[in-house]
Design goal:
The protein is an alpha+beta fold. It has eight helices and four strands; from the N terminus they run βαβααααααββα. A hairpin with a 2-residue loop joins strand 3 and strand 4. It starts with a strand and ends with a helix.
């Protein structure tokens, strides 16, 4: 079985919840997924409007810190997604992304604020000067663009999404749907 891929944008609350769910249920897919940062705009995706009360309830049901949305909404996630791409090059995409998600959705911090991104980067031992230099590098910008192209080619049109082989499962139930499909495929093979 090929390694599953988790496509996400740090500015999307459904991506936050699925990311936390992936970490809580690491065995759900039978393999740890590759985390692939994709800026939603690259695939023509805009997160739906947020109902803060419903989102707060989902966050509480997941056992996460209480929801605190930033005053700037919807968030501009471009800097965070470039930083996640830079972090991925150093093996820190998961650590940075989780820290950034938590800064936004548990800390209520503005994702477009350089300070928010640098706090999340510091949480996974990324030096601020390296981050600020890294996000301007052509190779990092091109890598994020290629991730969007790969996502589109795989059939990803909304986030969060989990790709397993050629199948793509998207939306807030992506992890459960992907795990269910994998379990059914495993049963069919036996």
């Amino acid at each position: 079985m090929a390694q599953p891929t988790f496509y996400y944008d740090i500015g999307d609350p459904d991506c936050y919840l699925v990311a936390e769910q992936i970490m809580a249920e690491l065995g759900a897919l039978g393999a740890v997924p590759e985390w692939e940062p994709v800026h939603g705009a690259q695939i023509g995706y805009t997160p739906p409007a947020v109902d803060p009360d419903a989102l707060a309830e989902r966050v509480a049901q997941a056992g996460l810190q209480p929801l605190r949305l930033p005053s700037a909404w919807p968030p501009d996630s471009e800097l965070a997604m470039l930083t996640a791409t830079f972090a991925k090059g150093g093996g820190r995409a998961v650590a940075f992304s989780l820290a950034a998600f938590r800064q936004v959705f548990a800390g209520g911090r503005d994702l477009a604020d350089e300070g928010t991104v640098l706090i999340a980067a510091a949480a996974c031992e990324m030096h601020p000067k390296a981050v600020l230099k890294g996000v301007t590098m052509r190779s990092v910008i091109a890598s994020l663009a290629r991730a969007g192209e790969r996502a589109r080619a795989a059939g990803v049109s909304s986030l969060p999404a989990i790709q397993v082989g050629t199948a793509v499962f998207a939306g807030r139930h992506a992890l459960e749907d992907a795990a269910r499909a994998l379990a059914a495929a495993g049963e069919a093979v036996r």
